[in-house]
Amino acid sequence: MRTSFIKSVTFDCQDALVAARFWAAALGSTVDEDATADKAYVEAPGWGGPNLWFVRVPEPKTAKNRVHFDLRAPGLLPDEVERLVGVGATVARASDDLVVLQDPDGNEFCVE
């Protein structure tokens, strides 16, 4: 039996281009050349990952997101957190082996 696969993950956001630039920098990819503040696309770096779509919506984020990314740091955790903060993330909370950050729209994600 054939099954479905994840083609893309879509984010609602205030500015699609800002969100796409952050995630492209975070994941080592690029933003599609046709991206605008209304809609933007980031192709998954490497092979096999889902692509990312960003769509402007009128309402702000009001609650904790119910799905989030868990990223694996390629080296030392503090170095990766510093890099992600440098491209626009903010630290929400941290422990010795896991850091919860927020992207520019306040969506939480983890790095371990």
What is shown here, in short?
The protein is α/β, with parallel strands linked by helices and 112 residues long.
Provide an overview of this structure:
The protein has 112 residues and is α/β, with parallel strands linked by helices. The protein is 20% helix and 28% strand. It contains 2 helices and 7 strands, in the order βαβββαβββ. It has helices at 16-27, 77-86, and strands at residues 8-13, 39-42, 51-56, 70-71, 90-94, 99-102, 108-111. It has a 4-stranded mixed beta sheet, covered by helices on one side. The chain starts with 7 loop residues before the first strand and ends with a strand.
Topology summary:
Layout: E1 8-13, H1 16-27, E2 39-42, E3 51-56, E4 70-71, H2 77-86, E5 90-94, E6 99-102, E7 108-111
Parallel strand pairs: 1-3, 4-7
Antiparallel strand pairs: 2-3, 5-6, 6-7
Global geometry: globular
Instruction: Report how far the terminal alpha carbons are from each other.
Output: 35 Å
Tally of separate helices:
2
Assembly status:
single chain
Radius of gyration: 14 Å
Encode the helix/strand succession as letters: EHEEEHEEE
The biggest sheet amounts to:
4 strands, mixed
Write down how many β-strands occur, each being a DSSP E stretch of 2 or more residues. 7
Low-confidence stretches: none
Strand numbers in spatial order across the main sheet: 4-7-6-5
Helix content: 10-25%
Overall pLDDT, averaged? Answer: 93
Q: What percent strand?
A: 25-35%
Q: What structural category do the secondary elements indicate?
A: alpha/beta
